[in-house]
């Protein structure tokens, strides 16, 4: 479960943090989330890639589902797929449900179809419907490329909410 080796000079923060986080996982795993809360998920993904493979699940579990999902979004694609293959479908669903619908669909699209279906079956109904809709689009079409924000994210502009220029009347 090792990603393609990258030059440690390309990720100096992770190179410095990985030994300390590995030690923290051994000594006080409950403290990992608090000790890493100010570190960007991309940097934590780099740390995860430098940890011994057997520590990855422990590290992500110590972060909690929401933070682990953020880190998974930045994790090497191959390592992420292998990790999601190794944990139960229920555990994987808990993590991917925390992702945005676009990221969740992208992650499931990377996996073999059977495993993706197992994980999808464990995702709550509403999130599963969003994900299945995104997965139904051809990845090379506009529907497959554009970010999906759902109806709730759009704010409709009406005459009562439309901004007016200074000095202009809204009537």
Structural notes for this entry:
This protein has 171 residues and is mainly alpha-helical. The chain folds into 2 domains: 70 residues; 64 residues, no CATH class. Helix content is 60%, strand content 0%. The protein contains 11 helices and no strands. Helix 1 packs across helix 3. The longest helix has 16 residues. It is elongated. The N and C termini lie far apart (64 Å).
Note the main attributes of this structure.
about 170 residues, mainly alpha, elongated, disordered C terminus
Number of strands: 0
Counted up, domains total 2
Please state roughly what percent of the residues sit in beta strands, choosing from under 5%, 5-15%, 15-25%, 25-35%, 35-45% or over 45%: under 5%
Largest sheet: none
Residue windows where pLDDT falls under 50 for at least 5 positions:
142-171
Helix content: 55-70%
Count of DSSP helices? Answer: 11
Radius of gyration, CA atoms, in whole angstroms: 20 Å
Q: What would you call the structural class?
A: mainly alpha
How confident overall, as mean pLDDT? 82
- Using the alpha-carbon principal axes, give the shape: elongated
Measured between the Cα atoms of the first and last residue, the distance is 64 Å
Order of helices and strands: HHHHHHHHHHH
Write a compact overview of the structure shown.
The protein is an all-alpha fold.
